[in-house]
């Protein structure tokens, strides 16, 4: 694991006891699963428009690029909400904060389901961003407080399995529901999922009093003083922006490039989801041993997958195979990068996570925006190439960091 290079880290929350009773360990893991469900709900809500882009655009009379604002908007809001939440609500019990943010998510999804026009839907999507940024910023580092140290790497993989599952399983399931019952039903279903997550959060997660509040000035100080955090932020921006430059428009890509029938896209995205979850747990196991090497491998795989889709995805069979490769490569991104950030700043895990979530969601927004510009002004097939250029830069950054620190 990489060593911290910073000097301004504040003491983080106390970890769970080193040798808990079996019952305590089980309760800790149940709490981890409840948090993972919550993060699955918020991230699925953020990304659901990816699978329903064209049906929503057709109903509300907007272009593919304009419909992409449903991803750009909440991503930008989430990037601001992540650091703001941990500063403004720094003294509030973490379980209560998570429940509040899930309540905001439920309301936003119900408004989305009833939206009479695109302006109302977009406003609801901005509200989603508040929930995403705040929930993820707090949840990302909770494994340290719920299970013993020897289980933290595995628990982090489970929590971030919620992020990976949202990208690669939640979106496909929402797409299938939207294809069968309409996109409004998909948002209503996500509202129900959020409500269930609130109930399980109160039943399974213990009270989590806040540690010493984080001051706003600590976040830029951590960036200035910690080279590992700076590299982690750069990698997050490049890899996630590159991915979402193409993935936001995966439905137009499958239709226009691969000639995929609309009726099978949801099922194909479920396959993408299955291999992506496998990628998440493979990356989690690797990141527990060496975060740098794991992120480098992910960056290389993602850089290879996007051109493969552009070149070999010109038929339904080729597009399906390329999409599965893409899902496997992207599945490990969240847990790999989160592990990088915690390894870089182990005594400031919540602050490092807030910075990571800020960068990750800003990158989702940037990717959707860049992809929209490419799709609307150039061609749909140009999106994977634009994304690959960014992930290639990410691979170069990861390789350079690895060479500078061979001991990690």
Automatic annotation (TrEMBL):
A Pfam match: MFS_1
Membrane topology, as annotated: Multi-pass membrane protein
Compartment list: Cell membrane
Origin: domain of life: Bacteria
Annotated Major facilitator superfamily (MFS) profile domain residues: 31-406
Keywords (A to Z) from UniProt: Cell membrane, Membrane, Transmembrane, Transmembrane helix
Keyword Membrane assigned: yes
Predominant subcellular localization, coarse grouping: membrane
Residue ranges of the TM segments: 28-45, 65-89, 96-116, 122-144, 151-173, 185-206, 227-250, 262-283, 295-317, 323-342, 354-375, 381-401
Name of the molecule in the record: Putative MFS family arabinose efflux permease
């Amino acid at each position: 694991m990489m060593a911290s290079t910073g000097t301004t880290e504040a003491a983080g929350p106390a970890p769970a006891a080193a040798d808990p009773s079996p019952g305590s360990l089980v309760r800790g893991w149940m709490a981890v699963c409840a948090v993972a469900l919550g993060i699955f709900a918020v991230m699925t809500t953020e990304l659901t428009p990816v699978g329903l882009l064209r049906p929503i655009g057709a109903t509300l009379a907007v272009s593919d690029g304009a419909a992409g604002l449903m991803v750009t908007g909440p991503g930008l809001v989430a990037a601001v909400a992540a650091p703001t939440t941990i500063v403004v609500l720094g003294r509030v019990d973490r379980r209560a904060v998570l429940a509040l943010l899930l309540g905001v998510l439920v309301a936003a999804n119900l408004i989305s389901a009833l939206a009479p026009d695109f302006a109302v839907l977009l406003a609801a999507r901005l509200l989603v961003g508040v929930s995403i940024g705040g929930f993820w910023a707090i949840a990302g580092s909770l494994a340290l407080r719920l299970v013993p140290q020897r289980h933290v790497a595995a628990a982090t993989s489970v929590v971030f399995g919620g992020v990976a599952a949202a990208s690669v399983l939640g979106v496909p399931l929402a797409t299938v529901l939207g294809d069968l019952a309409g996109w409004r039903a998909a948002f209503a279903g996500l509202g129900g999922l959020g409500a269930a997550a609130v109930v399980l959060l109160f039943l399974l997660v213990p009270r989590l009093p806040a540690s010493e509040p984080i001051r706003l000035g600590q976040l830029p100080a951590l960036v200035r003083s910690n080279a590992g955090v700076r590299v982690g932020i750069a990698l997050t921006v490049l890899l996630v922006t590159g991915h979402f430059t193409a993935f936001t428009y995966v439905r137009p890509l499958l239709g226009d490039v691969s000639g995929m029938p609309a009726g099978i896209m949801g099922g194909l995205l479920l396959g993408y989801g299955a291999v992506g979850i496998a990628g998440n747990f493979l990356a989690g196991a690797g990141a527990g041993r060496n975060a740098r090497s794991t992120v480098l491998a992910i960056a290389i795989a993602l850089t290879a997958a996007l051109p493969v889709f552009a070149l070999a995805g010109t038929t339904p069979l080729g597009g399906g195979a390329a999409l599965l490769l893409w899902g496997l490569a992207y599945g490990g991104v969240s847990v790999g990068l989160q592990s990088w950030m915690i390894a870089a700043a182990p005594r400031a895990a919540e602050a490092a996570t807030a910075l990571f979530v800020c960068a990750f969601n800003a990158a989702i927004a940037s990717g959707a925006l860049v992809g929209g510009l490419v799709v609307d002004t150039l061609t749909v097939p140009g999106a994977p190439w634009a994304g690959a250029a960014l992930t290639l830069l990410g691979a170069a950054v990861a390789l350079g960091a690895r060479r500078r620190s061979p001991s990690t």
